[in-house]
Structures are given as structure tokens and as C-alpha cells.
Design goal:
The structure is a single chain. This protein has one domain. Helix content is about 10%, strand content about 20%. It contains one helix and three strands; from the N terminus they run βββα. The protein has a three-stranded antiparallel β-sheet with strand order 2-1-3, with no helix packed on it.
Length: about 80
């Protein structure tokens, strides 16, 4: 189930919706407008070159939560 981010064309509200099918009606939660623009989503991914098995074990052990930032600090969004 993909989650899409939207920007309301009428009031400027930003919101997310889980879209189950292409026929799902999407309305702004603030003004109930159906006019919106789909935004590009940014997601986090490990950029340290670690193998997927090592990355998943470090995430499960909680060491990534101490790294800082929205993605563990690997993108430079927060300096350690």
C-alpha cells in the first residue's frame, strides 16, 4: 500500500494518504478540496555501504537511533 504526499491546490495544506487503488478519492483534511498536487517523497536508506544483513542487525539493536537525524545521520542532515 503506497503512501502518497499531497499539497492542496486551494489552501496549501500538506498531507499524506494511503492509496489502496487508483480510484481512491483524495480530499484535503483542512478544506475538503479534491484539487491537489502529488509531492515527491523523500525516504531514508543506508548509505554507509554496509551489507543488508549488517544494516538490519544494527537497526534492530538500536544503534541507528543514536546516530541522529531523520535517517541516522548518513545524509548529513545532522552533524554528530
Amino acid at each position: 500500500m503506497p503512501i502518497y504526499e499531497y499539497l492542496c491546490d486551494d489552501c496549501g495544506e500538506r498531507y499524506e494518504r494511503i492509496v489502496l487503488s487508483r480510484n481512491t478519492a483524495i480530499e484535503c483534511p483542512k478544506c475538503a478540496s479534491a484539487k491537489h498536487t502529488i509531492q515527491f517523497s523523500v525516504f531514508a536508506a543506508p548509505a554507509n555501504g554496509a551489507k543488508s544483513s549488517g544494516a538490519s542487525s544494527s537497526l534492530s539493536s538500536g544503534s541507528a537511533s543514536s546516530g541522529g537525524g531523520c535517517c541516522g545521520g548518513s545524509c548529513g542532515c545532522r552533524s554528530n
